[in-house]
Amino acid sequence: MSFFRPHSSKYSSWLFIATGLSFATIIGTSAIAAAKDTAKHPPPIPSAAIIDKVFVDKSERRLQLLSGDKVIKSYHIALGGNPIGHKQQEGDQRTPIGSYTLDYKNEKSQYYRSMHVSYPNTVDKANAKSRGVSPGGAIMIHGQKNGFGALAMLNQQRDWTAGCMAVTNDEMDEIMAAVKVGTAIEIVE
Hints:
The protein has 189 residues and is α+β, with helices and mostly antiparallel strands. 30% of the residues lie in helices and 22% in strands. It has helices at 9-40, 122-131, 152-155, 169-178, and strands at 53-57, 62-67, 70-76, 98-106, 114-117, 140-142, 165-166, 183-188.
């Protein structure tokens, strides 16, 4: 039982070894996490880049910021729970397909920052009216639901929006800084 005696040299040696191993584990784990963190955060958008189009491929779950024909940045997105096909009506959990405009920014959203897509256009409204339904609206590019930003890595693995395009909060900050109101957005299947 000399191991438990505070003045035992054996106790001091074991305590020193255990402390050293714990410290090495913490430092090693932190270094690995930092390396992974660096790999997860690609370089920022160059300040000279002018984003003139946003391109969304629903089947790839990919949103791209373009300058001319060059892809400046690409993001993984989450869509609505029923993502296949063009948005037909309010509540169908679909993202529209077609050419629209990002017509305003919203800093006071239920989600972490957002940019509004100009859906529904006149054709969308006419199609919904012919079926006797509301076309819906409030289609946005947005971050995570307020208060749930820490769950982004989990949330972004599934389709969880009501028809919007969701990114992480950090990505939303980057998009809001780079994309001006009035920028074209093209959404394809």
